[in-house]
Amino acid sequence: MTTAVSFQKASRHFGSVRAVDAVDLDIAPGEFFAMLGPSGSGKTTCLRLIAGFEQPTSGSISIFGERAEGVPPYRRNVNTVFQDYALFPHLSVLDNVAYGLMVKGIGKAERHKAAEEALSLVRLPGYGARRPGQLSGGQRQRVALARALVNQPKVLLLDEPLGALDLKLRENMQEELKSLQKVLGITFVFVTHDQGEALSMADRVAVFNDGKIMQIGTPEDIYQRPKTRFVADFVGSSNVLPPDFVQRYCGQHRWGSLRPESIRVGRTAKGAASGEGVSARLVSTNYLGATTKLALDADGLKLHAIVPAGNALPVEGEAVVLTFNREHLHLMDEPV
Amino acid sequence: MRSDGSQSAPLSLKIAAACGLLFLHLPILLIFVYAFTTEEKSFVWPPPGLTTQWFAVTWNRPDVWQALSLSVRVAAISTAIALVLGTLCSAAVSRTKFFGRETISLLVILPIALPGIITGIALRSAFSLADIPFSFWTIVLGHATFCVVVVYNNAVARFRRTSGSMIEASMDLGADGFQTFRHVVLPNIATALLAGGMLAFALSFDEVIVTTFTAGQQQTLPIWMLEELIRPRQRPVTNVVAMVVVLVTLLPILAAYYLTRDADQIAGSGK
């Protein structure tokens, strides 16, 4: 089976900056793939390599088995939803959506019909006569989506498409993008710096840092079994435990990660009696609604714990005992 | 200090403003009046009589037509050159980052900041050094130096306002470079080019200083007018021509003003 997008040791260097550095990557057809990472980690450059706006400095990229180097963006069967949507302000919404068909020389009646269908697909039927300037941010986003989808691309690239939307709208769009992808069966490649978004939407996630892929896996893999300290910290801000600490509990001298929600916070008296757990001091509490986030200091090691709302909380500065299930302590591959 | 629309300015300020405006515009009205005077050798106020005969006289003078046609041709070709070079230059400066970008931007704008006489002398000595005979084309070259600036300034401002990812979006949707220019870039800068082009045309049309240095025997309309003023013969003919020139240049400038103003409103409403 051919892969939808394949990177073989692909690099893109800008002078001495290694924006993308020897990346190996295989995206399966029909997959919803997320590229997650902080800004400047190379995820957007990767997307631009697929779109054809950048050419690899070395290595190769293929899209559905065809070599992509040297192929300009307008000859690739790949379309992009841009971060700022990049709608054409001088064209109506319908002509914006029909643009790709227009430059391919498809007749007016036919392309307008296809554009209308694409607008219905993104739930904006009848908006064709308006100008992009008359639409809200969420509507512009849908137009940008329709404009890309009308070309029936083999791969749809989305560059932080939800970044400019407010929270409620973003959650709706997440749902919609996901169901749209299921219906259309197109490969979606999605760039985001929001780990929640990546985890909730994608079939697989690649975590980027410094132009390299730190880990590729299912959201559960990435979240439960981070391979490196960076992934543990960036995806869901896990507690990174140093090798000495881990050795005391598992007997192995390796880096470990412990999710904040796996830590139970108890009063000193109980924990001391059982002789188990880590003694720590509560530094501060952060009320988050459904949960409360506790910042703890265990003899110089800074830890976070998340406890459900409703539990009685220790006061700040109070000594506490932390306990956790051994199986929740995940050992990472990172060399010590 | 802010004043409400309902609050009226003090009377003294109104009078001062009116005086200023009259001072600016009465002389232009005077030119119009002298176009109808019956006195042909000197300008006498008040005019001894009114006549429209000078319009017929002007119409029948071949030197007027020659000068007018030369001016129109020079302005049209300089503007055409400026449109091409100004657009290309502004696209390069606003779209890409390269070494010496700011310097190029400054060098392009310089001809309009320099006194025309410097441009004129420089071009004249350059032409004689290179043994280029003065002709229609030397005038065009001289005018193009400052026409490019006007187009460049207009286009650069528009390019700054248009989103860079629009061009990428067009390429992404399957349009090659030419199609992208035709369907995305051009429509977005069209009004800026129209405004810049009209301004360039008007600038070239009434240019005197650079023209005196770069023209041979040819007379553009402004130079013809200067020479006419020195000779006390059929003076109102000059006024008739002046009146026509004022009307002809005013209309495109007004049009350019309204065109760019509307474009700004459209661009603003999109935000």
Automatic annotation (TrEMBL), chain A:
Belongs to the ABC transporter superfamily. The keyword Zinc does not apply. One of its GO terms (molecular function) is transmembrane transporter activity. It comes from Mesorhizobium sangaii. The lineage of its organism: Bacteria, Pseudomonadati, Pseudomonadota, Alphaproteobacteria, Hyphomicrobiales. The keyword RNA-binding does not apply. Keywords: ATP-binding, Nucleotide-binding, Transport. GO terms for biological process: putrescine transport. SUPFAM superfamilies: MOP-like (SSF50331), P-loop containing nucleoside triphosphate hydrolases (SSF52540). GO terms for cellular component: ATP-binding cassette (ABC) transporter complex. Pfam families: ABC_tran (PF00005), TOBE_2 (PF08402). InterPro entries: AAA+_ATPase (IPR003593), ABC_SmlMolc_Importer (IPR050093), ABC_transporter-like_ATP-bd (IPR003439), ABC_transporter-like_CS (IPR017871), Mo/tungstate-bd_C_term_dom (IPR008995), P-loop_NTPase (IPR027417), Transp-assoc_OB_typ2 (IPR013611). This is Putative spermidine/putrescine transport system ATP-binding protein. Residues 5-235 form the ABC transporter domain.
UniProtKB/TrEMBL annotation, chain B:
Signal peptide: none annotated. GO terms for biological process: transmembrane transport. Residues 68-256 form the ABC transmembrane type-1 domain. Keywords: Cell membrane, Membrane, Transmembrane, Transmembrane helix, Transport. Gene3D superfamilies: MetI-like. It is found in: Cell membrane. Pfam families: BPD_transp_1. The keyword Lipoprotein does not apply. InterPro entries: Bact_Polyamine_Transport, MetI-like, MetI-like_sf. It is a multi-pass membrane protein. CDD domains: TM_PBP2. The chain crosses the membrane at residues 12-36, 70-92, 104-123, 135-156, 240-259. GO terms for cellular component: plasma membrane. Belongs to the binding-protein-dependent transport system permease family. CysTW subfamily. PANTHER family: PUTRESCINE TRANSPORT SYSTEM PERMEASE PROTEIN POTI (PTHR43848). This is Putative spermidine/putrescine transport system permease protein.
